[in-house]
Amino acid sequence: MRWSLTKATPVAETPTSWVFRVEQNGRNFAILKILKPGMGEGERRGGALMNWYGGEGAATVFDSHGDTLFLEWLDGIPLSDAVRQGRDDEATIALSSVVSNLHRPRADAPDDLLPLRQHFNALFATDVRAWPHTARDLYARCNGVALTLFDKPSAQIPLHGDLHHDNIISSGRGWLAIDPKALVGDPAYEVANAFINPMGADKLAADPRRIAGMADIFNQRLGFSRKRMLGWAAAHAALSACWDLEDGKPITGQLACLPNLLSAYDQA
Question: Per the database entry, which stretches of residues form a coiled coil (predicted)?
Answer without folding.
Answer: none
